[in-house]
Amino acid sequence: MIDLDGWVCPAPLRDYPTIVMGHGGGGKLSAELVEHIFLPAFQNGTLAQLGDSALLEVGAARLAFSTDSFVVRPLFFPGGTIGDLAVNGTINDLAMSGAQPLYLSAGFILEEGLPITQLAAIAERMGAAARNAGVTLVTGDTKVVDRGHGDGVYITTSGIGVVPAGLRIAPDQARPGDVVLVSGEIGLHGMAIMSVREGLEFGTPLMSDCAPLHDLVATMLAANPNIHALRDPTRGGLAATLNEIARASGVGVRIIEAAVPIPAEVRAACEMLGLDPFYVANEGKLVAFVAREAGEAVLAAMRAHPLGRNATIIGEVVAEHPGMVVARTGIGGTRVVDTLVGEQLPRIC
């Protein structure tokens, strides 16, 4: 029997004796699972870095290795499918360490009763996404579960890429004085999922921003390699990403709320549903922490790339309030941008 009294953990974890949906949302509950269950169980220095991918020294090569699981509902949504999402999501995790993605694996958990035509369409989209990104899917596995126990299909993908020599991009590398950039408009993926899941119409069709970001990252590094941290703001959105890097680096982050690019249709949909766009997931955007002297060069390179044409500087890194993100509001006030306990929208990736 597990001795709960022997745990060294905050009370919120003990308040949930079973898994709840919020544990998968990328917020505080997810962080507690990692900190108090997985890190102690698997304890090693590589895992403890908590990057989007692990950096491994293999002979003379520096490899990035990442894995991710996808349980999005519905399987098909405006701008993509669970297949595109699985490929691009893992590519993006590798790219956030500056790696050039090379190879992917895929594991499929299929529910009895899933139409073969749907599976074929998902596999075709996966293959096309991999080919378009220049990566090769080289191995995989398939399992089937009973009807009513799988929600169609779940996919787990792992990826391997090569990191250029001398490059060090990680969540703990942000420094006071850095500028914070975002590559484009936020909130599109989460709200596109919400629109089809709930049958909502917002006047303007919402399309997911699902896309591979490794070429954008390579363009940024070619302009100036003085990039300290990168993250794609998926679960938990922009807010979770900024908080994760602030905590990992022991710095404060100060952003200008009005500078964050939010499409009018996303803003309107969030207002209708009572959601905050800062916490809505993205699947084709990145956040970059860049040395101030390199900021304009990196920004110009981003804007010259199709996936970064709406890039902008949204804030800066400061020494004050380490581990905290604050935003200057449109009326001149300041608010704390915290991490949610769970997530506003479950099952979005």
Automatic annotation (TrEMBL):
It holds the Pfam family AIRS. GO terms for biological process: protein maturation. InterPro entries: HypE, PurM-like_C_dom, PurM-like_C_sf, PurM-like_N, PurM-like_N_sf. Residues 52-163 form the PurM-like N-terminal domain. Residues 175-321 form the PurM-like C-terminal domain. Signal peptide: none annotated. Belongs to the HypE family. This is Hydrogenase expression/formation protein HypE. The lineage of its organism: Bacteria, Bacillati, Chloroflexota, Chloroflexia, Chloroflexales.
